[in-house]
């Protein structure tokens, strides 16, 4: 079983490049998860391991240490670029890269450009941690520019994200000589996996969320998080008290009405 290590750059408290409504860490994670899904679904004898599968922060040394300990056959670190004028795609190997790293870069770069198109900034060498400290052939890809408007517009398109994923998959498969499965596993491989920020309400729920928070049913935090039975009990009890107020009226005795309701509920249980 061949092992491919995919490193989604940045994450957690480190968003990477941020511009035009996009965070680098989110694109890197989408692409990384997509590569894992498609490689394992479409090819034989390959296992894809990830530095991160969620929005968490990892030190660079931890990323390469884990990849080295796992005995990965290759490493590909996924990033987006910034500060590049006209934008485009480029890839990096270490300044004193092995022959196999150079071959991996060539296969990846050509496959990604073939799928992505646009400006080719070339195959480059640089003293980057991810390609320097990895014991296996390693390449870092910079997939378009977050701060270049035309590139950012492309990165917002599912078809472009899929093209980036497909290019990585094709390049990795070509380098490793992977064989396509005759019968593919039943996995959702047509769309990249997406994640959401639990601290931001969905657009369709924003108005209702704000209204419920204003009325005291929720505290306004973590709108996208799963609700526990304890939390649902609190919300239901708040609703119950408001209904009692409505029944009792402004001048009604809410405490007396609540006690009577509890008596009725007790009688039903007995």
Q: What would your notes on this structure say?
A:
- By secondary structure, the protein is α/β, with parallel strands linked by helices.
- 46% of the residues lie in helices and 16% in strands.
- The protein has helices at 24-42, 60-70, 99-116, 129-132, 149-155, 158-176, 206-214, 229-248, 254-269; strands spanning 2-8, 18-19, 22-23, 46-50, 74-81, 89-93, 120-125, 138-145.
- A six-stranded mixed β-sheet has the order 4-1-5-8-6-7, with helices on both faces. A two-stranded antiparallel sheet has the order 2-3.
- Helix 1 crosses helix 6 (158-176) and helix 3 (99-116) packs antiparallel against helix 6 (158-176).
- The termini are far apart.
- The mean pLDDT is 88.
- Residues 64-173 form the MurNAc-LAA domain.
Task: Outline the secondary-structure elements.
Elements: E1 2-8, E2 18-19, E3 22-23, H1 24-42, E4 46-50, H2 60-70, E5 74-81, E6 89-93, H3 99-116, E7 120-125, H4 129-132, E8 138-145, H5 149-155, H6 158-176, H7 206-214, H8 229-248, H9 254-269
Helix pairs in contact: 1-6, 3-6
| Tally of individual domains | 2
Quote the beta fraction: 15-25%
The tally of helices reads: 9
**What's the architecture of the largest domain in CATH terms?**
3-Layer(aba) Sandwich
* Fourth-level CATH superfamily of the largest domain: Zn-dependent exopeptidases
By CATH reckoning, the class of the largest domain would read Alpha Beta
**Order of strands across the biggest sheet?**
4-1-5-8-6-7
H-E string: EEEHEHEEHEHEHHHHH
User: How many runs of DSSP E, i.e. beta strands?
Assistant: 8
Catalogue the unreliable spans.
none
- Mean pLDDT across every amino acid position: 88
**Approximate shape:** elongated
Organism: Paenibacillus taichungensis
GO cellular component, one term: outer membrane-bounded periplasmic space
Pfam families: Amidase_3 (PF01520)
Protein name: N-acetylmuramoyl-L-alanine amidase
